Amino acid sequence: MTDTDIAGGKLVRTQGVTAPLGYRAAGIAAGIKANGKLDLALVFNEGPDYAAAGVFTRNKVKAAPVLWSQQVLTSGRLRAVILNSGGANACTGPGGFQDTHATAEELAKALSNWGTETGAGEIAVCSTGLIGDRLPMDKLLPGVTEIVHEMAGGLSGGTDAAHAIMTTDTVPKQAAFHHADKWNVGAMAKGAGMLAPSLATMLVVVTTDAAATPQQLDTALRNATRLTFDRLDVDGSCSTNDTVLLLANGASGVTPSQEELDAAVLAVCDDLAAQLMADAEGVTKRVEITVTGAVSEDEALTAARAVARDSLVKTAFFGSDPNWGRVLAAVGIAPIELDPDRVTVSFNGNPVCVNGTGAPGAREVDLSGPDIAVLVELGLGEGTATVRTTDLSHGYVEENSAYSS
Amino acid sequence: MTDTDIAGGKLVRTQGVTAPLGYRAAGIAAGIKANGKLDLALVFNEGPDYAAAGVFTRNKVKAAPVLWSQQVLTSGRLRAVILNSGGANACTGPGGFQDTHATAEELAKALSNWGTETGAGEIAVCSTGLIGDRLPMDKLLPGVTEIVHEMAGGLSGGTDAAHAIMTTDTVPKQAAFHHADKWNVGAMAKGAGMLAPSLATMLVVVTTDAAATPQQLDTALRNATRLTFDRLDVDGSCSTNDTVLLLANGASGVTPSQEELDAAVLAVCDDLAAQLMADAEGVTKRVEITVTGAVSEDEALTAARAVARDSLVKTAFFGSDPNWGRVLAAVGIAPIELDPDRVTVSFNGNPVCVNGTGAPGAREVDLSGPDIAVLVELGLGEGTATVRTTDLSHGYVEENSAYSS
């Protein structure tokens, strides 16, 4: 992707969380992953402000780091985020929560020793990996001290951090937005499977050098996640660890309006969501399901999600098969207002079903390319929504049938 | 399977719809399928009674034969059922409905010519196959006359009929129940994919020589489908054509109690549901998800279905991987009352998660066999339910990525 002009600025993918002023980051191999790859990341906010907001998984089974970070975020203030791959620290009981707490305490101590007085209550913790195993704290805790030294040495650790949070991701995901008025937003994300209804399974850290209150950040972040990560549905599975954080330090000296902040955060999150879709487990097709003409936006979203989650639709797309009847069957079971005789469907702009009946040439529509745009027109109202998904491929089955073993 | 003693009688799989007295059936190759296989089936009730009940798909997009048969069933009376494979006649517009109507008229004429005065309004029509194409009526209509002649020649066409309704099924599915009091129930079913929430994608015809009113049949059929086909969920997809019919002719002279009828119909449907699971597209594992301790049966069913539909759980089972964290993640996103710290999970009787935390040895549980029983204990109440499903395999992807083309 080349740079994109958007929302009064420019969007790039070559930089991440350290693109804004006043942030440092690092990524190291602490030995949490058995294969020796990078597995520990740190994002550090140098100030002067420490405003922050977070959005977390809606799964009732929440990992220890989610429970911890939710509690920390009630203050609306964050100095640092420490993230590990190689283990989700979910379903690990009280011992797992103590491990998260100990990680935050260790980082607070290391940062304080480095000269930045920090409390554990100013530190968010994120984990990703297999559910159910305790983290190797004998590796993790020394890694926390090491990564502070690493970060201290330079300002360019954003890309290392983006690498260190990867699990089955094949590429790191970063995006940065440079506003014409000299303030910036940067972000990194991970997530390749268990991507679903409310927040893809993923960790996202967004930084900005704009000045903003925690409440403004919360508004911008909820607006952005609702329209981007919440509408990315690879396999209908929703993780125990999903976390999206937004930090603002005011280092640019600029205080954008709420609308400007919303637009910038949305632009960065939207780009990351597209990157997550493109790198989803086993993906061979990038699929966008758009539903229009529903009686409300909520119903449009429900219908789009029903199609996006339908295994028969997804396997057909893997086979480049314009089997539009499966789209109708999926829409028909969605709990929405529907008149089957008004439904019109097109694939990549080619009508395949008009008013509930097959269109001439529908079986010959060419879906062999990597992108499939599905448009479902319900013809009832003004509600519109788009969900990003992927096909269901042999690669998905392969990757997910051999993940923990 | 050997004969099973159950509900005051005996269950066998060697007979189907012609097991009860007073039914004839046939299956022929009418040329609807391009490959020349059997594709047209007839079940004919010789009387003396013609009581009947039906349960149909909850999909809002209903195939023409579903709309027709629902209308016919309002009379509580059926003389015959004509079923075709090789085309669903769904999303085919007014022309498709006229094709269904013409099929019933043609059969009424052929049966009347054979000496049994019959009206089109006493005939149910079922279709299965690809959605969206019109049926080849130039083949189907002559087939209707031919199949009446075929049926006239003998009493043993039940197995041919069971073959003729197959699509991606690899084996015909039949079951019969012989009550000790000399009345009988017989049935056939098809369905291998698009098996989901409310009725698997399937056609089922159940016959009995017991005497019963349409209302009694309706009660027995709704009770049975609720507990069997409605709890079979292979891929979360719900068809446009699902139809389950129950016919009673009183030929045995026996009038069982409602309880006896309920038990017999349930036994036959339960056995057919097990057969459908075992022959589902791409199946390598037969999986039963049981949830206990929910606050209600509805919530237990919701939780069991959430696990049964989770692609990550299903791919793990394909890999014989005891990845119990995915079960917890799936339960955690179900819209039910849940205390994550009370959830206990076992695989084939081996505890893998106790009170929300991994059990020792959980990663070593052997799931290499063809049957996997998952027990999820929520510890909150008395609600219990079981859902049958399968793994998500390469075979499933292969079969469904190449179905229409």
UniProtKB/TrEMBL annotation, chains A, B:
Its EC number is 2.3.1.35, 2.3.1.1. It holds the Pfam family ArgJ. Coiled coil: none annotated. Gene3D superfamilies: arginine biosynthesis bifunctional protein suprefamily (3.30.2330.10), ArgJ beta chain, C-terminal domain (3.10.20.340), L-amino peptidase D-ALA esterase/amidase (3.60.70.12). Pathway: Amino-acid biosynthesis; L-arginine biosynthesis; N(2)-acetyl-L-ornithine from L-glutamate: step 1/4; Amino-acid biosynthesis; L-arginine biosynthesis; L-ornithine and N-acetyl-L-glutamate from L-glutamate and N(2)-acetyl-L-ornithine (cyclic): step 1/1. It is an enzyme of class 2 (transferase). GO terms for cellular component: cytoplasm. It catalyses: L-glutamate + acetyl-CoA = N-acetyl-L-glutamate + CoA + H(+); N(2)-acetyl-L-ornithine + L-glutamate = N-acetyl-L-glutamate + L-ornithine. The active site is at T201 (nucleophile). GO terms for biological process: L-arginine biosynthetic process; ornithine biosynthetic process. Substrate binds at T167, K190, T201, E281, N400, S405. Transmembrane segments: none annotated. It is found in: Cytoplasm. Keywords: Acyltransferase, Amino-acid biosynthesis, Arginine biosynthesis, Autocatalytic cleavage, Cytoplasm, Multifunctional enzyme, Transferase. The record marks A200, T201 as: Cleavage. The record marks T128, G129 as: Involved in the stabilization of negative charge on the oxyanion by the formation of the oxyanion hole. It comes from the Bacteria. Its main location: cytoplasm. GO terms for molecular function: L-glutamate N-acetyltransferase activity; L-glutamate N-acetyltransferase activity, acting on acetyl-L-ornithine as donor. PANTHER family: ARGININE BIOSYNTHESIS BIFUNCTIONAL PROTEIN ARGJ, ARGININE BIOSYNTHESIS BIFUNCTIONAL PROTEIN ARGJ, MITOCHONDRIAL. Catalyzes two activities which are involved in the cyclic version of arginine biosynthesis: the synthesis of N-acetylglutamate from glutamate and acetyl-CoA as the acetyl donor, and of ornithine by transacetylation between N(2)-acetylornithine and glutamate. Belongs to the ArgJ family. Heterotetramer of two alpha and two beta chains. This is Arginine biosynthesis bifunctional protein ArgJ. It comes from Nocardia cerradoensis. The gene is argJ.
